[in-house]
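Quick illustration, no need to memorize.
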Amino acid sequence: MCLTIHEFAHAYSAYRAGDDTAKLAGRVSLNPIDHLHPLGTIMMVISSLSGFGIGWGKPVPVNPYRLRRPRWDNLMVSLWGPLSNLLTAAVVGTVLRFTAVPMANSGSPVLVNGEILLETIVMVSIGLALFNLIPIPPLDGSHILSAILPYESAKKFDMFAAQFGMFLFLALFLLPGNLFGHIIGPPAGFLWKVFTGIP
């Protein structure tokens, strides 16, 4: 669900900015099947069994030459993925804020499981947004950084990213768990409290 919303937001914002590449590919859709990457889906299932789920959807095709305002529109297309997840977390977190206690005290397995589902959606949405904001290719943060840098600096960054981005991305997963948690954990905890009101 969270990946679907994320990829749909990229595709729809690109379409609104003048590039119909994603629309023609059937990606302006809230059908999860349209966004699932075979290997990314398998990885999601396998890694979830170890307690730490990671996976990915199919990248949304964007043709920057068809965007009306290439740098600005590229920034917005990249930004709308994480923003859509934060909006999802905010909406679901608000529901959770007013229903968590009644559901937990209801004694109904259905309602208790409903609370767990809502909590999971909020946590995954926040985690997906923050992870994608890390400015390392192929994450959205690298496109956002490139779009806001001065033109010459952006060109240098793009060249560096093309050469070393994948190595840096893989290095993220070699960081000790505690170190990675210290990067994502504090802002994730802050947003959790803001959205849900739950300490």
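Residues 157 and 175 are 23 Å apart (CA to CA).
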